[in-house]
Fold this protein.
Amino acid sequence: MPTQSNNVNNYFNVPGMYEDILANQPQPAIVNRIFLSTDTKEWYRDTGTAWELWFQAESSSGWALGGNTLTSDKIFGNISATKYNIQFYNGNAEAARISSNNNFLIGTTTDGSYLLKVAGSMQATTADFTSNIIQIGTLSNTLQVGKPTATGTLSNLIFGYSNMNGTVTGSDNLAIGRGVMQNITSGASNVAIGSLSGKTLSSAGNNTFVGVQAGQNHTTGNGNVYVGALTGLNGAGATNNVMIGLQAGSANTANYNVYIGHTAGSANNAQGNVFIGANAGSTITGATNKLIIASLATASGTTGIITGDFGTGVLTFQSTIQTADPGLGAGNWLLGVYTAGAPAATGYVQVKINGVAYKLLTST
């Protein structure tokens, strides 16, 4: 027992608070008695049946307000079996807490099913994400904003699952979706939005792929615009194409094509074509420098309301061309079979200029 000279007596001359080294701490017996351990700098309260650690002074073994120098892992927080909210205060108001569900809340006290919940805005310290990454999840299942998943370069923006997994040296790429631009290396200034879009893109640049599997097997070609699911699917090294619509140009690996419409040019693999309309040229496999403007009913082959050959300079109209009403008066014109007005002979190809019909040749 400590000597009486070390005791602090209460009003009734019963020791109520005293000090000694921790090894000399007496058995608990008097409720609310205080014991100061001089060697560990800890304050204990007697509960009558046990000594309860009440306060630990600033020292190498405690958490000092001015900071600690650690030489091993330490615990900060509640080690009891019962979980409680651990609150962090600033300015006499709660700023954050670790909830009793082990979630971290900032700016709110309302818990939920989220490990991190923030009421307010978050911002990286640099606008171009050159050194800051926000990553949620593992590398194979992640939402990431910043540098690529593995090693990489500057100013790439990534949202989704398993995107840009390689060693990336290219910059200014945007990948949104699942498995987007997985193989990108030196490619730069590409935009791929949609699951597996631009999946095998490697060194190509200035491509825009929007849609599930848009440009999925594209590798090195530059300057393409694919919009729609499966557009430009097997593009490989194709360059400077514009393809819009489901499966438009899905087999193409050639250059300088414009395919607009559902499955337009979906089987063709040659360059310099313009196919416009649903199914326009969808069954053609080797057309070069061709023009097809067609409707769904006539579009699958080489026919259409308008066809042409950029190589020969021939433009073919498969139907009459006219204004909505060729009889409106001066300024209207008609190219085709004209059957109203003078001369009114049926079966002639005529042109109407300023309201006057001119016969060009007979149908025979």
In short: The radius of gyration is 39 Å. The mean pLDDT is 78. Residues 322-362 form one domain. The longest strand covers residues 356-362.
